[in-house]
Write a structure and sequence with these properties.
single chain, alpha+beta, 5-stranded antiparallel β-sheet, globular, disordered N terminus
Length: about 290
């Protein structure tokens, strides 16, 4: 490891080499592919902020990918911020333009990205992945559920920008919180970021293509079933912390056609939740998450 006071450079941690942008472009930017441009920057505040700004001015079209080796002001849901050591994870945003898909179905795009990321990482890293509604990626570290990634979507220009942050090689002493994890700590067979990135983007291209071909119908495309199958929130007692300071406790029983989490509350009422923080109270994994 490089001493903390040593000058930073792109090779300062030999266990975390920089991404090879030429190789990534060669492998991902094909004439028939979704991805049309790919840029890697050394450091930025937030790839979502940067790419959304470009999308709003028309500077990028569908399929633009922006990747940062380091994010200094990464954004999560509810305007939370987080940082991670340089080259310790995948920090990227993509711009998608669903076009003729009804806007009311666009809310599925961040959930689609969760399914795609979990699928791609499970294959390339050899780690069991699950989803915490709406958009957290979970792994198991020493028998405990840990968050290893998050997804954020926002409307921009003629489409939507989706950001993904995934902890790849974070060590135990680098974790931002006790509930955080990484692919390395979950026993990944590979932490090569280029391999993982290709797998995630190819999986995202596949799922996005299926969803668009079905007119944005999450059921017909198989997306709704895939999300439910991989969702660790279902069949558990949870507390939904809702906007405005309210909360709701119930059993998570379904993901509905709009991507909302359906809770069965006291008295047998079924209450869909479209936004909020979810706390896992009881379930198959036990404990609080």
């Amino acid at each position: 490891m490089t001493p903390p006071d040593a000058p930073h450079n792109r090779w300062s941690d030999l266990d975390r080499p920089p991404l090879n942008v030429t190789a990534l472009r060669r492998g991902l930017l094909r004439p028939d592919a979704l991805w049309t441009s790919l840029e890697v920057v050394e450091s930025t505040g937030s790839t979502n902020t940067d790419l959304a700004g470009r999308a709003r001015t028309g500077a990028v079209g569908e399929g633009a990918v922006l990747i940062a080796e380091e994010q200094t002001a990464g954004r999560g849901r509810l305007e939370r911020t987080w940082t991670a050591p340089p080259r310790s994870g995948l920090f990227l945003s993509v711009h998608l333009e669903p076009g003729d898909i009804p806007v009311e179905r666009w809310g599925w795009v961040p959930l689609l990205a969760g399914v795609a990321a979990a699928t791609g990482l499970a294959k390339s890293a050899g780690v069991d992945m699950s989803l915490k509604w709406p958009n957290d990626l979970l792994v198991s570290v020493e028998g405990e559920e840990r968050k290893t990634g998050g997804i954020l979507g926002e409307f921009a220009g003629d489409g939507i920008v989706v950001g993904l942050g995934i902890n790849v090689s974070l060590r135990a002493d680098e974790l931002p919180a006790p509930t955080a994890g990484s692919l390395a700590l979950a026993g990944a067979v590979s932490t090569d970021r280029e391999t993982l990135l290709r797998a995630v983007l190819r999986s995202l291209e596949d799922w996005y293509g299926r969803w668009k071909a079905a007119g944005g119908d999450a059921a017909a495309s198989g997306l709704q079933a895939a999300y439910a199958a991989g969702c660790a929130t279902l069949d558990r007692t949870v507390r939904a912390e809702l906007p405005g300071g309210k909360s709701l406790v119930g059993e998570a029983v379904a993901i509905d056609g709009d991507g909302r989490l359906v809770l069965s509350t006291e008295g047998g009422l079924q209450q869909p939740v479209s936004a909020g923080d979810i706390v896992h109270l009881r379930g198959a994994a036990g404990g609080l998450t």
